[in-house]
Amino acid sequence: PSQWLNCFLEMLEVVPEKFHPS
Known about the structure:
Number of helices: 1
Structural class: mainly alpha
Strand content: under 5%
Shape: rod-shaped
Order of helices and strands: H
Mean pLDDT: 81
Largest sheet: none
Helix content: over 70%
Radius of gyration: 10 Å
Low-confidence stretches: none
């Protein structure tokens, strides 16, 4: 369970970059 949760948190960090590319 910890593995998928860690992947989920990483995805949440990447999502903002896709919406707001700098």
